[in-house]
Amino acid sequence: MVNFIVKYYQLLLLLGIWTIAGVYDPLLGYLLIIAGIVILISKNLFTELLMGFIFILIMDDNIYNHIFMFTPVAKMFYILALSFFFTVSTRVFFPVFRIFLWFAPFFALALVTLFLNSPVMDEGFQKTISYLLVVIVVPNYLLQAYRKSGPEVFKDLFYFGILVIIAGFVVMIFGKEYVMIKGRYAGIFGNPNGLGIFCTLLFLLYSLSEEFYPSLYSRADKFLFFGFIILSLVLAASRTAYLALGIFFLFRLFHGISPFLSFTMLIAVLVGYELIFFNIVEIIRFFKLEAYFRLHTLTEASGRIIAWNYSMDEINRNFFMGRGFHYDVFYFRQHYSILQKMGHEGLVHNSFLSIWLNTGIIGLLSFLAPLLYLIFRTSTVSVLAIPILYTVLTSSFLESWLAASLNPFSVFFWIILTMLNSHEIYGQKETDTISVH
């Protein structure tokens, strides 16, 4: 970690300047962020550009987003700047990685539903275009960083994620109230579940990069970093993260033995959900962990079932064609008082229901079909492909992060998907070559 800080100290100083300037004067913050992006682009520092983008997205999701009020506009400037450079300098990114073409029907349909039915046209258009740009830009900047730095880019992105986690503990030194929400640890994220999702995806990035390049991480690094991840998860008490990572380890074990056994286990979990749920509840009670796991909210999944049922009522009115991106947010805010009386505060908490609400069943299928195909076809490339798929599906089934574009979680997901699908990356695994250096 010390070597990482020394290597990227200029970037870290730049991120600090952006933050201070943005809090002091948003306009000054925007100008410095744009200037910083231009400098990074001029020097072809693609890894730094990705880190800066992730940083701005984390600040936007921050527990103190009322202080970082400059970030909603800043993240739009950032993705537009990355997209502009990609467009005018396509030769720099040659050969262009065209994974975004698989999702072209989805985005086309999203625009159609937006123009035909949306009550929030402006916000919906921004979110649709920003998601499309993320799918285009992030994989290509990652590949360009890989072409320049090799496997070190994955190690550096992982270290950057760990530094974000460590930042939460540093802030806690000044007072627990700065990092706690309703008794649960959130680090510098907007809520404990956000921290849980971040740790989950960071772990997936580590697992895949270690599979491809076993010598990338030292043993000391592993112990140190996993200590911070485990401690963060314990303090956050994120049931979604526990479940998602549990799914990963379970299916990593069974898929390693037999893919058929792995699929059989998935079916068994789905069919035997009620029995499994009952036993989990009894185990929690046996160890007297009811308060930690918030058992009183478990049967309603912290209000998620209420939200899901309420979503389905609206989905049935727009089953085939939704009402465009951002409609899920608009709909739940419009009915906030009703949902609050029913015992739910928040939004849909399900990526697939969010997509269904926004783009209809046709949109949901046009998103899921290429996603599933792109991961299933890589099962011969990585033994972790299917466990990663099940982990992502579990996490995104319980939270709506996959349906949103400008958040740090989606960026890490598209990084992982690129690693699995780019022959430039998986074709240079250490097992296939004498050396990666």
Give the SSE layout.
Elements: H1 2-7, H2 9-24, H3 26-42, H4 46-60, H5 71-88, H6 104-117, H7 121-149, H8 152-172, E1 180-181, E2 184-185, H9 192-212, H10 219-236, H11 239-257, H12 259-271, H13 273-286, H14 295-298, H15 304-315, H16 327-334, H17 336-342, H18 351-376, H19 385-398, H20 408-421, H21 423-426
Antiparallel strand pairs: 1-2
Give a description of the structure.
- This protein is mainly alpha-helical and 437 residues long.
- The chain has two domains: 1-93, no CATH class; 95-149 and 237-426, no CATH class.
- It is built from 21 helices and two strands.
- The chain has helices at residues 2-7, 9-24, 26-42, 46-60, 71-88, 104-117, 121-149, 152-172, 192-212, 219-236, 239-257, 259-271, 273-286, 295-298, 304-315, 327-334, 336-342, 351-376, 385-398, 408-421, 423-426, and strands at 180-181, 184-185.
- It has a two-stranded antiparallel sheet with strand order 1-2.
- Strand 1 (180-181) and strand 2 (184-185) form a beta hairpin.
- Helix 3 runs parallel beside helix 5 (71-88).
- The two termini are 20 Å apart.
